[in-house]
UniProtKB/TrEMBL annotation:
Keywords: Signal. It comes from the Eukaryota. SMART domains: Ephrin_rec_like. It comes from Symbiodinium natans. PANTHER family: LEUCINE-RICH REPEAT PROTEIN KINASE FAMILY PROTEIN, RECEPTOR KINASE-LIKE PROTEIN XA21. The gene is inlA. The lineage of its organism: Eukaryota, Sar, Alveolata, Dinophyceae, Suessiales. This is InlA protein. Residues 1-17 form the signal peptide. Residues 600-638 form the Tyrosine-protein kinase ephrin type A/B receptor-like domain.
Length: 665
């Protein structure tokens, strides 16, 4: 408690204008020791944090000056630490500002009920609980922030807080309808994101000072008409609600900067948005919005445009003038046009054009363009890859000549849409032009019609780098940066290199050879390789290589194919995923009992024969005087030809005949 007293004394001295040189050294020492858990800035001067600050017996009305001084912020930094800071606060009757957000504060709201002069209460992201109704008497409240707490209650109890300007209750347990808020005409910011609030938007129609409204992930319903008069709105978030209707009511909201209506039932064309020239973010994904892109041509401040899975159509060209655009998502729309349209949008960092009708391909003119581009999804009609011979020169020291120098993710095809991924070129044409991309970590090119040899990126043969030709250019930037490479469902002939962390060449459409040294190096360094569903031509050598490194086959059969009549062992190396019957059937697979053959090439034992062993190349004939159906798996399958019952399914003296047959065999 001595430390608390010193802290309070220091706060009063600082509030009165005393400087640190006026204070005893011993006082600073004690204060420093008391504040090891954090620092509370009062009037821009440091004060040791003590969670006893609001637990002290007796009132501290002088703290009014410490929490608020004329012309200064009450806190320059948040209070840090832990403790039940709300208990005992009843004595702070003159307290106006209480900022405890993002601390470990616990307790219920009840102790705050008597703080009648409180204007600002910040308890977001704390462990505070309790019911909203205890705040109903704090009629001077202007800002109430309880975001990400366990606070409960209905909005009705806040109806009397007519001075409220900011009301933040996102991710709380608050419920109720919006009607009680109709009288809070001073509201500038209302955030009820991810609460159980319900009802229609009509009660908000009179909140003319609203600048920010977030009702995303609530159960709010109705049309947008009640918002038509909220001309001060700058940010409107209604995503994942049941809001319906056309966009026309938003025409007059010319101050809007953020408009989020994704995953709603909103319909209509884009024309009503043409005059919202302040828009920076527009999210209309998974709505029923239709029409062309022309109305967006004048939104020159737009930075993020998300229209995926809408019925928007038309050409891409109207977006050519949106030079501040950073993120563009047109996935699963009918937008068409040329990739070339995007070439001069230098701020683009994320682009998704998958499942669109866009066309075009990369060429030399793309060098040095889109230097900020980090994610590119091109699963469209665009052929993407350059013509043979183009973009083969690599530039590492010449940034202005690089191709997508900041690219982190390239997703060439859109999953499960083979017809929209017409790369149809050697895989080298995909990776070689990107070899100088030192940030590229993920390349996805599933079912893209790629073929040929996946070259050794660690040593590019005959590469021209920075205007100089090399017989072998070792360790280009891509060799170290690429962590994930997915080439599944293509038609590769050979693989000489693997990405650092994960490579998939599963479901390859033909026989393929694997470079032994590269595979060994990858697995030893912790990388994973997926070859499931791929037939390998040099499986024997690979298995022998793995065995020498202590990576043999499993002790038991792990795969059984009853239709094909074979079973297979797997590899003990989990980092290598294979289909044994395609990888090395002769060494990993064998015919099941009742079958004959080699590896995974098995057929049922013919009639009057059997095979009781796994991995046997031939079947044994039944003893004389007995017969068996096709696929006999033991001598018991052979039945006497004499002594059968009318049902034909019992043997006469089968035991003696069977034993004799075993001895004879």
């Amino acid at each position: 408690m001595r430390a608390l007293a010193l802290a309070l004394a220091l706060a009063v001295l600082l509030a009165s204008g005393r400087r640190d040189r006026d204070l005893p050294a011993a006082l600073w020492t004690d204060v420093k020791d008391a504040g090891k858990e954090g620092v509370l800035h009062v009037n821009h001067a440091p004060m040791p944090q003590s969670h006893a600050l609001l637990e002290e017996d007796g009132p501290f009305p002088e703290l009014e000056a410490n929490f608020e001084a004329p012309g200064q912020k009450p806190f320059a930094q948040p209070l840090r630490g832990s403790g039940c800071l709300l208990r005992g606060s009843q004595g702070l009757t003159k307290l106006q500002h209480l900022h405890l957000s993002h601390t470990q504060v616990t307790g219920v709201l009840e102790p705050l009920a008597g703080l009648a002069q409180l204007k600002r209460l910040y308890l977001s992201s704390t462990r505070v609980t309790g019911h909203l109704e205890v705040l109903a008497g704090l009629t001077q409240l202007q800002r109430l922030l309880l975001s990400h707490t366990q606070v409960t209650g209905v909005l009705e109890v806040l109806a009397g807080l007519t001075q409220l300007q900011w009301l933040y209750l996102p991710c709380t347990r608050v419920t109720g309808v919006l009607e009680p808020l109709a009288g809070l005409t001073q509201l500038q910011r209302l955030d009820l994101f991810s609460t159980r609030v319900t009802g229609v938007l009509e009660p908000l129609a009179g909140l003319a000072q609203l600048q920010r409204l977030d009702l995303s992930r609530t159960r709010v319903t109705g049309h947008l008409e009640p918002l038509a008069g909220l001309t001060q709105l700058q940010r409107l978030y209604l995503s994942r609600t049941q809001v319906t209707g056309h966009l026309e009511p938003l025409t007059g909201l010319t101050q809007l900067q953020h408009l989020y209506l994704a995953h709603t039932q909103v319909t209509g064309h884009l024309e009503p948005l043409a005059g919202l020239t302040q828009l920076r973010r527009l999210y209309l994904s998974r709505t029923r919005v239709t029409g062309h892109l022309e109305p967006l041509a004048g939104l020159t401040q737009l930075q993020r445009l998300y229209l995926y899975s809408t019925q928007v159509t038309g050409h891409l060209e109207p977006l050519a003038g949106l030079t501040q655009l950073q993120c563009l998502d047109l996935h699963n729309t009918s937008v068409d046009g040329e990739l070339e349209t995007l070439k001069d949008l230098s701020d683009l960092s994320e682009v998704d054009l998958s499942a669109t009708r866009l066309e075009g391909q990369l060429s030399e003119s793309w060098r040095g363009k889109l230097r900020k581009l980090q994610m590119l999804n091109l699963g469209s009609r665009a052929r993407v890859l350059p013509e043979r011979g183009e973009l083969q020169e690599l530039f590492i020291d010449y940034l202005s000549m690089r191709l997508f120098p900041a690219l982190v993710t390239l997703d060439a095809p859109w999953a499960d849409q083979v017809s929209d991924c017409p790369l149809e070129r050697p895989v080298q044409d995909l990776l070689w032009p990107l070899a100088a991309s030192g940030h590229l970590a993920r390349v996805i090119a599933k079912r893209a019609g790629l073929s040929g040899n996946l070259p050794d990126i660690d040593g590019l043969r005959g590469a021209t780098v920075d205007f100089r030709r090399h017989a072998v250019y070792a360790n280009p930037p891509l060799a170290k940066s690429l962590q994930t490479l997915d080439l599944s469902g293509n038609r590769l002939d050979s693989v000489e290199w693997f990405a650092q962390t994960y490579t998939s060449i599963s479901g390859n459409g033909g026989n393929m050879s694997i470079n032994q040294g590269s595979l060994d190096k990858t697995l030893r360094s912790g990388g994973q390789v997926d070859l499931a569903g791929t037939e390998v031509t040099n499986g024997r050598e690979l298995v022998e290589l793995l065995a020498s490194a202590g990576m043999g086959r499993t002790s038991d059969i792990t795969v059984t194919n009853t239709t094909g009549g074979y079973g297979c062992y797997s590899l003990t190396q989990d980092a290598l995923r294979i289909t044994p019957s395609l990888f090395f059937p002769e060494g990993l697979c064998g015919c099941l009992p009742g079958h004959q053959g080699h590896g995974a090439s098995c057929s049922k034992c013919p009639p009057n024969s059997y095979n009781k062993d796994f991995n046997s190349s031939s079947c044994t004939s039944c003893p004389e005087g007995s017969s068996a159906d096709e696929g006999g798996a033991s001598i018991e399958s052979c039945q006497c030809e004499v002594g059968r019952t009318d049902a034909g399914n019992e043997m006469h003296e089968v035991g003696e005949l069977g034993r004799q047959g075993e001895l004879d065999g």
